Amino acid sequence: MLIRQKSEIPSSEITPKREYMNRRAFMAAAGAGVAAVAGGRALRGLAKAAPVDAAEQLATVKSPLSTQGLALTPLYDITHYNNFYEFGVNKDDPAKHAGSLRTRPWSIKVEGMVSKKKTFDIDDLLKLRPIEERVYRFRCVEAWSMVIPWAGYSLSEFIKQCDPLPSAKYIEFTSLDDPKQEPLPWDAGIQWPYTEGLRMDEAMHPLTLLTFGMYGEVLPNQDGAPVRVVVPWKYGFKSAKSIVKVKFVKDQPLTTWNLMAPNEYGFYSNVNPNHDHPRWSQKRERVIGAPIWKQLQPTLMFNGYADQVASLYQGMNLDKNY
Ligand SMILES: Nc1nc2c(c(=O)[nH]1)N[C@H]1C(S)=C(S)[C@@H](COP(=O)(O)O)O[C@H]1N2
Ligand SMILES: [Mo]
Predict the structure, then answer these.
(1) Both 187 and 282 in a single domain?
(2) Can you list the residues of the chain whose pLDDT is less than 70?
(3) Are residues 157 and 48 located together in one domain of the fold?
(4) Taking CA 230 as the corner, what is the angle to CA 272 and CA 25, rounded to the nearest 5 degrees?
(5) Which residues pair with 170 in a beta bridge?
(6) Cα–chain center distance at 54
(7) CA of 12 relative to ligand 1 center, distance in Å
(8) What angle do CA 190, 192, 197 make, to 5 degrees?
(9) Which of 25, 48, 174, 270 has the CA that lies 20 to 30 A from 294?
């Protein structure tokens, strides 16, 4: 349930948060400016910077599916070390440029093998189920990781509302592709829109999170506002941001990174320390924001969620199906 409430945090703690929000407003303006002065593809830059709300809180309930005992990655690191190629290819680009993303009005279209095509408004989705806080490990294929207190509910709750046909075997996610809101004058080498996909049983697994926020607030634009998926046992690129469409299909969908480099990024992309990326080892990861002596950690099979998800892949060769 979304409650736009006054912050109940003591005023001593509000200042950093307010500064953070002001920074977002400033960056939105800066992002629009950059696009306006660049030539050519900068026509992409006509979007006005979206007005920035004061910290929009999400009322959350605790979840038994939260990962226990891990130090949370600071909010600043989560919001300034991003992969969101629609807003640039460098880690600090999304924080600088995603201010031009407009997150209202917003809806998710449901297509493909469903009894009836539907469109869900973001504000209805926010009310569908209580929003849970789920702390998950998050592992990027680039061998860095974070621990993030996401806010959302199981994707399965949304899929039930979509009423897919039993013959649907996969779900495909499509991210926003709007040149007006993604005003980058350079080419990330990606074929837009960004798409990702999951097998139906993966999508229905309770850990797979339809995500609206983090740290008790709505998602910052650079983290995939207003709605994304998070699949904690898979490499980060499976977690598509700023989703505008889901499609239920019979065959394994084509996905952005798999299309770009199939030998590097498989469809499954389960975190697997025993299957190295062709250009680097996956045995260890750098924990972003951790104290220096704790930064290098061994990578865990299924990112530490093996107990809960290994059974989905029984009998599969995970070295071949990477
Ligand atoms: N639409 C879209 N979704 C995306 C990406 C992207 O470039 N575009 N990058 C992916 C990758 S590689 C990662 S690691 C995560 C990063 O999420 P974060 O920036 O919130 O940590 O988003 C994933 N989802
Ligand atoms: Mo990633």
Answers:
(1) yes
(2) 1-55
(3) no
(4) 125
(5) 199, 249
(6) 22
(7) 33
(8) 95
(9) 270
